[in-house]
Write a structure and sequence with these properties.
- This protein is 36% helix and 21% strand.
- It is of the alpha+beta class and 258 residues long.
- It folds into two domains: 66 residues, no CATH class; 167 residues, no CATH class.
- The chain has a six-stranded mixed beta sheet, sandwiched between helices. Strands 1-3-2 form a three-stranded antiparallel beta sheet.
- Helix 1 packs across helix 7.
């Protein structure tokens, strides 16, 4: 039987795996007939036996998108997961703020995430920041196919949000530690990440909404997050109907939210 204390043992790992990371683990002997699931090792052994996780080279990970979606659903619905559940529930607000250009709200949610008790939020690496950002945008997966470390333009972008409906806005998100969100957006533009959303020359556009560049940074010194959003392209039929955001260079890139 899986008890609340057992959940505490694997909670942070679930956040990392739900963002696409692998987690180091020792897998012991476990069979479907086993009745006790008490330790972290037993939990992961059971999940491997039942096909929920894959074990490879001393690490466990979520093997496919279908299971990833199921894990995300658990994060959104199981209040026994504590801070993970609370952050996931804020993810609808995070997406709404992003689409509306409300960077202050985005920063408040990220600061809320940072002020929880979890050691994963120490942000010792960009991997941990990515995991928390993934959690803060969890509800976006209802409307978007969210790809991490996706090949785009001249490199790999941290996150791309591909809309399920072609008229929704697309989102390109880049993270920085001890830098600025402006630097993140500069990288998005210099490496032409938006080409991933535009399709091949001469083809009908697959997406007709805006393309948003989102930069998120975290300072280890000040312990603060900063966000910036720019409209890289707004050429759809609703161009100019900008949700209360000033878009002053439609269809030419570089439109800044004010």
């Amino acid at each position: 039987m899986l008890e609340r204390d057992n959940i505490d043992d694997v909670r942070d790992d679930l956040v990392l795996m739900a963002s696409g990371e692998r987690v180091a683990a020792e897998i012991g002997q476990y069979t479907a007939a086993s009745l006790e699931i008490r330790t972290r090792e037993q939990i992961y052994s059971a999940m491997v036996v039942y096909g929920l996780l894959t074990y490879e080279d001393g690490e466990v990970f979520i093997p496919n998108k279908e299971l990833m979606n199921q894990f995300n659903e658990v994060l959104l619905t199981k209040d026994s997961l504590g801070y993970v559940y609370r952050l996931a529930r804020k993810s609808e607000q995070m997406l709404k703020a992003t689409l509306e250009g409300s960077v202050e709200v985005m920063e408040e949610i990220l600061q809320y995430a940072h002020n929880t008790e979890s050691p994963i939020l120490s942000y010792n690496s960009e991997t941990e920041l990515s995991a928390v950002v993934n959690l803060c945008y969890l509800a976006a997966r209802d409307k978007y196919c969210v790809e991490r470390e996706d090949k785009a333009g001249k490199g790999f972008v941290d996150f791309i949000f591909y809309p399920e409906r072609k008229n929704l806005d697309s989102i390109i998100l880049e993270l920085k530690i001890d830098s600025t969100p402006e630097e993140a957006i500069r990288q998005i533009k210099e490496k032409a990440y938006a080409l991933r959303l535009k399709g091949k020359l001469g083809e009908t556009a697959k997406y007709t909404g805006r393309i948003l560049a989102v930069g998120i940074s975290y300072s280890k010194e000040t312990k603060e997050h900063h966000c910036e959003i720019e409209v890289l392209e707004d050429c759809g039929p609703s161009a100019g109907a900008n949700h209360g955001i000033s878009v002053w260079r439609k269809c030419n890139g570089g439109a800044v939210f004010f």
